[in-house]
Amino acid sequence: MKDQSCSGNGRIITRDVTARQLRNRAVPEFFSEVPVKVKAEIKELTRGCRLRGRPPSAEAAERIVEAATALFLGKGYGATTMQDVARRFGGSKQTIYARFPDKKALLEAVVTAFTERKLQTPRQLAAADGPADQMLRQLARAMLNAIMDRDSVMMLRLVISECQAAPDLAEMMERRWRRPGLEMVQLVMERLIAQGQLQGDAGFLARHFCESVLLPHAWDSLFEMGELTVTTDRLQVLDAAVDFFLSAAAPKDAVSRNCHVNTGPLAALDIFRSCYA
Fold first, then answer.
1. Residues with Cβ < 8 Å from 209, sequence gap 6 or more?
2. Per-residue pLDDT tens for 64-86?
3. 17 close to 2: Cβ distance less than 8 angstroms
């Protein structure tokens, strides 16, 4: 097979490449659709880097992030070198350093792109209008699917394993992983409060929703050694947790008008008992 690249003087060079070399350049499946926002985030992360050689391109930065993601998830962050990343995406270390000053900056770009990719479906649901119980149930299920995704679990395990050697990674994870999802949920809470469907402080409700409805499943996924699946029992527990949340966050007159929410706590308690008996 033939591969073409551009030399420093602008000439096109054609060289033989093997199928294995082409496979090494393959883009991970979860990067098949990179959100526009991620491109802006990666551009911001690389702002201020000293550039050498040809001017940087967004495409090159994306290819570097894609290659680094596959290697970090496959080999681990500590075991991956910049030379490994260069070899994977088919460039040089100089090309990487022109866009990312160090490996930590590259990891931050990886986590940013990964998070935005996983939040695409939840963001679409969060932008919709409807009854609070229906909206929050759909949002919780979409976020559960993102949490229980194998690549998401591997990414979270990866960063946790490196935090002892590099404590600042925990702050980065808070900023690039946890906070975007929390801010998305807070916007939903603000809208539901403005519509009179919920009451209270939007920031507090968002934290309560994430920590009581979703966090238990995130912990489960971290310690699950087998295949990660969203079972019927897990969905029942999730829906029950949403009912608990609504029983406290919905205005009292709304609770009395909505028999589903009104009976939610008792029904949810029965579900919890049956699932964990």
1. 136, 140, 185, 189, 245
2. 999 999 999 998 888 999 999 99
3. yes
Rounded CA gap, 16 and 7, in Å? 16
**Domain 2-111 in this protein, CATH class:** mainly alpha
Which residues of the chain form beta strands (DSSP E)? 2-6, 12-16
Nearest-CA neighbor of 125 among 195, 184, 209? 184
Question: Tokens 């699950």, residue?
Answer: 224
**pTM, to two decimals:** 0.67
Taking only the tens place, the pLDDT of each residue in 226-258 is 667 888 888 999 999 999 999 999 997 754 444
Task: Answer whether 202's CB lies under 8 Å from 189's CB.
Answer: yes
Q: Are 105 and 140 in contact (CB under 8 A)?
A: no
Q: Start-end ranges of CATH 1.10.357.10 in the chain?
A: 119-276
User: Within the chain, which residue ranges are assigned CATH 1.10.10.60?
Assistant: 2-111
User: What CA–CA distance (Å, rounded) separates 71 from 88?
Assistant: 8
Q: Which CATH architecture has domain 119-276?
A: Orthogonal Bundle (1.10)
Euclidean distance between the first and final Cα of the chain, in Å?
Answer: 60
CA 246 to chain centre: 26
Those residues whose C-beta lies under 8 Å from the C-beta of residue 121, and which sit 6 or more positions away, are 142, 145, 146
- Report the DSSP beta bridge partners of residue 3: 15
Rounded to an integer, what distance in angstroms lies between the CA atom of residue 31 and that of residue 116? 10
Return all residues near 125 (Cβ < 8 A) that are at least 6 apart: 135, 138, 139, 142
